[in-house]
Specification:
By secondary structure, the protein is mainly beta. It contains four helices and 22 strands. Strand 19 and strand 20 form a beta hairpin.
Length: 321
């Protein structure tokens, strides 16, 4: 007898309520394939992947599909990827696992989640019964997903509610053809399912002034340690010929682009700049205070200067590293 069946037998002898039978949740088998969640939003997410049959829908019908308090879980995730930032994916080698996606750093309101037309049914469907429905749900769950209803009993002691329900942006089985795409901001999360997995997404572009993994000999670095997406802007001046032998100081603006928690970007500053202080700005995306931090760097600086963002959307802060 397997350990899992032994535990069920022990629980069955302890509780009077009927438990899930091996023919329901426990018999759900993983189908080989690939599923991916892609973050195209101005936030970071944690993605938990659960084996088929581990997530149980206990709502009355499909109208409660976005009420994430209507889901329960029978075990631990088989894979977790933390801090999936803008332009990155979390994937699993399966065709019928369920992804639970949580926004990092903010308790979002579920009513602010926008699910594109057709996405709910298409994403939730999955293959081979990714979800299991409580016996009391009835036919409504079949509309939500092609699932196996629990038979032979009601949900009992082996199930528990999903934690941090208010932080959940998505529960579903992405399928094997398209990404689940997250977009928008923490205030308004968008979810779509129309980009094929064969698409490389094109997020490998790096601007020419980025120095890669090592700062340049005269550079300014930005490290995002915050629970929000942020951007560093560096502005210096160079003399430009406006004709007739006349030169004026013109601003040159370089940006890190929007980066999420854990990422660092380096911006090179040339030696030939005008004799004006170099300005550095850190801006937050979807923060209550968008202008997070600003400072100046002496025009004759050498080596590397480093600045960071930290805090939350409610208390966004910046400083030197």
């Amino acid at each position: 007898m397997s350990v899992k069946l032994a535990v069920l037998s022990l629980l069955a002898s302890t509780f009077t309520l009927p438990l899930l039978l091996p023919s329901s949740v426990q018999a759900q088998t993983l189908i080989p394939g690939k599923q991916c969640v892609f973050n195209n939003g101005a936030f970071s997410v944690n993605v938990d992947w659960y084996d088929p049959g581990s997530i149980i829908f206990i709502g009355k019908d499909v109208t409660e599909a976005k009420d994430y308090s209507k889901y329960q879980v029978t075990g631990n995730p088989v894979d977790t990827k933390k801090d999936v930032t803008l332009g990155f994916s979390s994937c699993t080698e399966g065709a019928n696992r369920v992804a639970v996606v949580r926004i990092v750093g903010h308790d979002i309101a579920n009513s602010a989640i926008i699910i594109a037309a057709g996405t709910l049914a298409g994403v939730a469907t999955g293959v081979g019964g990714a979800f299991v429905c409580a016996a009391s749900v009835g036919a409504g769950c079949v509309t939500l997903a092609v699932v196996a209803p629990v038979t032979g009993g009601t949900i009992a002691a082996v199930e528990k509610a999903l934690p941090e329900v208010k932080e959940i942006a998505y529960i579903g089985s992405p399928g094997t053809e398209n990404y689940v795409d997250l977009s928008g901001t923490i205030w308004q999360v968008g979810i779509a399912n129309n980009i094929p997995l064969s698409d490389s997404r094109g997020f490998d572009k790096v601007a020419t002034f980025f120095t890669g993994g090592t700062p340049g000999p005269r550079s300014i670095s930005f490290n995002n340690q915050a629970g929000y997406v942020a951007e560093m802007v560096v502005m210096y001046f160079q003399k430009q010929d406006i004709g007739g032998g006349n030169f004026v100081d013109m601003p040159v603006v370089k940006t890190s682009g929007n980066i999420s928690v854990g990422r660092t970007v380096h911006i090179n500053v040339p030696l030939a700049v005008s004799n004006q202080p170099i300005q550095v700005f850190i801006k937050g995306v979807a923060t209550l205070k968008p202008d997070v931090y600003s400072t100046t760097v002496p025009v004759n600086f050498s080596g590397n200067r480093c600045y960071k963002s930290f805090g939350t959307i409610f208390d966004a802060q910046g400083s030197t590293c």
